[in-house]
Design goal:
Blueprint: H1 12-19, H2 44-47, E1 53-54, E2 58-63, E3 68-72, E4 75-79, E5 87-95, E6 103-109, E7 119-125, E8 129-137, E9 143-148, E10 166-174, H3 177-184, H4 186-198, E11 210-213, H5 230-237, H6 247-253, H7 255-258, E12 262-265, H8 277-286, E13 290-295, H9 302-308, E14 313-318, H10 324-330, H11 335-349, E15 357-362, H12 372-382, E16 386-389, E17 401-404, E18 407-410, H13 411-414, H14 418-435, E19 439-441, H15 451-454, H16 483-491, H17 521-524, E20 525-529, E21 532-534, H18 549-553, H19 556-566, H20 572-575, H21 581-588, H22 594-612, H23 616-651
Parallel strand pairs: 11-12, 11-20, 12-13, 13-14, 14-15, 15-16, 16-19
Antiparallel strand pairs: 1-4, 2-3, 3-10, 4-9, 5-8, 5-10, 6-7, 6-9, 17-18, 20-21
Helix pairs in contact: 12-14, 14-16, 22-23
Length: 652
């Protein structure tokens, strides 16, 4: 099952995390990773891990929508016991500045007099977002002093009198030089990648900091989940459907794997069916990779739970329901087994205190919207690391129809209008605050200050239902909506944008956003999948076969996409990717150019018309009309691509 890339949150979300952090959060901690079983010899970075102490300059723990973190002021100190041998402090740091203008300096200090105390220093130009740094610590040192050259501007968190500079989380002190070498090479690549993006380069010397991988191509759920495009995906995979993913695969990837900080498993399959998963997880751990992986959770056996414990894995578990009845309509009758597995997993790893990080996923649709409140309450009981709210992929051509557990599931009818998604997002946030559940709302992927705040004035979307022209089917039970929850979502009052007098309006200090493209994904990510190479996780179609990923990274099509996004416009490939939330929000916010808006609306209308006239006499009567319109849309798409290519050539 597919998984989203790491959520990139914008600076506007920081102020909300600062002003109103959730209660009961856990603080920044040393990771106690235990990836090996008791009978195995743990890797060196685990065997040599030592405790650290957070001293001056750090604030209380908070939640950023993904994990616990602490703010550091301009300077902070970390203490640990001195040792007679060199070590490495591995730490995750988050900068709000997009232009590499924030610099972190680490100075090692020996205060105990043990083992030849001295001083050493290292400096890092910080890239925006989270990055992992590995800082050498000489023998005899027992403190590390961190200092940042400038603070995060207070204008972004007015009302908070703290001095804030960077965020930190997940630190480890160890004596494994091999792991240090692996982690240390990731930051220079990410730094080079950011510089190339800001320079609007389309041909890159850097490799993607985030790498999409395809671990396994088989699944234990058969027939597939009702919203899974299983057959279509396997058709796309073609000769690669059985391609193995092993340690040798990582060797073949070379610098593409070595330089990546994040790995995102986007396979259409169940990873826990893999025989080689243990070896791969161990390799990811030794090299300091963070893995995102999605599972249906039905085969989280004791063995699979043990192989996960202590791993730096974000495990997204697809539920999409709060009861066995609704789960059966979407998947199968394994609900009780799934919930039992979740209870054992969360208990074994220690609620939100350990690894892996557990995220329970809910995708709002017609079949399950009435259970949104019960799902929040279920998460409150189970205590995962977060509840993930994720939209069902939009696709005019997705024609999945299932009769399952007394329910007729029609994919196109299950899609919620945009305004309903906005209100469901707002209602989920309210319920999570009430129940103390940590929410990771992926509805806002792509960079608005807030998904809800930006779309407070959306108009109700008109129904897209069409006359039923399909052959007769038996009466199928439809979901009975919870009237209280349905009413709450319909009547949710979205926060109003405050009105500020013009005289009082002051521009916020620059964080370097002036050099940012419309979307950074084609610079930051590459997805090497059995069904083909994708420039982002929302790509509509592959742009090359799986084994051509090296050529694809700087291919003409990917350079065209980067060129257009750097110029502030969407490429035709983006417009042909209907699930892209960045495009969808631009369309809903009326920020698309007129020509692109007309093309998008025409295509949507065409698909609705085609669906309404696909059978019987209507199909025969409208056939000539469909041929003409279909050719017209192809010409429009071709002219759009040709125009963009000419414009970019002229610009260069």
């Amino acid at each position: 099952m597919s998984s989203e890339p790491p959520l990139r949150r914008d600076p506007g979300s920081v102020a909300r995390a600062v002003v109103a952090p959730p209660s009961g959060g856990l603080g920044l901690r040393v990771i106690a990773e235990t990836g090996a079983s008791p009978a195995e010899v743990p890797p060196l970075y685990l065997a040599t891990s030592e405790p650290i102490e957070w001293k001056d300059g750090f604030y209380q723990e908070e939640w950023d929508g993904q994990e616990d973190f602490r703010w550091m002021s301009r300077a902070g100190r970390i203490a640990f016991a001195a040792a007679p041998h060199p070590r490495f402090l591995e730490i995750s740091v988050h900068s709000e500045f997009l232009d590499l203008s924030q610099v972190l300096t680490a100075v090692g200090i020996g205060t105990s007099g043990a083992g030849g105390a001295g001083e050493q220093s290292a400096s890092f130009d910080l890239t925006a977002g989270w990055m992992v740094l590995s800082i050498p610590v000489d023998s005899g040192l027992d403190e590390l002093a961190l200092e940042v050259n400038k603070s995060f501007p207070p204008a972004y968190y007015s009302g908070d009198d703290r001095e804030l500079a960077v965020r930190l989380r997940a630190a480890r002190l160890h004596a494994d030089p091999e792991r240090h070498r692996h982690v240390a090479r990731q930051h220079p690549n990410a730094q080079r990648n950011t510089l190339e993006m800001r320079a609007r380069k389309t041909e890159l010397d850097s490799t993607p900091p985030s790498l999409g991988i395809d671990l396994h191509g088989a699944c234990n759920v058969n027939p597939p989940c009702v919203y899974c495009e299983w057959d279509q995906s396997k058709d796309l995979e073609g000769d690669y459907v059985g391609a193995p993913f092993t340690s040798e695969t990582l060797d073949e990837y070379g610098e593409f794997f070595d330089n990546a900080s994040y790995l995102v498993n986007c396979s259409i399959g169940e990873p826990f069916m893999m025989k080689s998963l243990d070896d791969l997880l161990s390799t990811f751990g030794r090299q300091g990779k963070r893995l995102e992986m999605t599972t249906n959770g039905q085969i989280l056996t004791d063995r699979n739970i043990n192989r996960l414990l202590g791993r730096s894995v974000d495990l997204y578990i697809s539920l999409d329901a709060a009861t066995a009845e609704t789960y059966a309509k979407l998947r199968n009758d394994k609900w009780d087994l799934l919930i039992a597995n979740l209870r054992r997993l969360i208990a074994a790893k220690g609620a939100t205190k350990g690894l892996p990080r557990i995220h329970l996923v809910f995708m709002p649709m017609r079949a399950n919207l009435h259970e949104l409140g019960d799902f929040v309450r279920l998460c409150g009981e189970l205590q995962p690391d977060s509840l993930v709210l994720r939209p069902l992929n939009t696709g005019d051509s997705i024609d999945l129809v299932w009769d399952r557990a007394g329910y007729r599931y029609d994919y196109q009818q299950e899609l919620l209008p945009f305004d309903e998604l906005v209100r469901a997002s707002a209602e989920t946030a309210r319920l999570c605050r009430e129940k103390g559940v940590r929410l990771n709302d992926q509805m806002d992927f792509g960079g608005s200050s807030s998904f809800v705040d930006e779309f407070t004035d959306v108009e109700p979307t008109q129904s897209t239902e069409t006359e039923d022209t399909a052959t007769e089917t038996p009466e199928i039970e439809q979901p009975v909506a919870d009237p209280d929850l349905a009413s709450a979502i319909a009547q949710t009052e979205l926060p109003e944008t405050p009105v500020v007098e013009a005289a009082d309006t002051q521009p916020l200090p620059s964080l370097g956003a002036e050099g940012q493209p419309l979307c950074a994904e084609p610079w930051k990510s590459l997805y090497i999948l059995r069904r083909g190479v994708m420039p982002c996780c929302y790509g509509g179609q592959p742009i090359a076969p799986m084994d051509e990923y090296r050529q694809t990274w700087n291919s003409p099509i990917l350079q065209e996409i980067r060129r257009d996004l750097a110029a502030g416009r969407f490429h035709a490939y983006c417009l042909d990717s209907p699930s892209c939330p960045v495009v969808r929000k631009a369309e809903e916010g009326h920020r698309l150019p007129l020509g692109q808006r007309i093309f998008m609306r025409s295509r949507e209308g065409w698909h609705r018309f085609a669906a309404a006239t696909e059978t019987g006499w209507k199909a025969r009567a409208t056939w000539p009309f469909k041929v003409v319109i279909g050719l017209g849309l192809r010409v429009a798409r071709s002219r759009s691509k040709l125009y963009q290519l000419r414009a970019s050539t002229k610009q260069n």
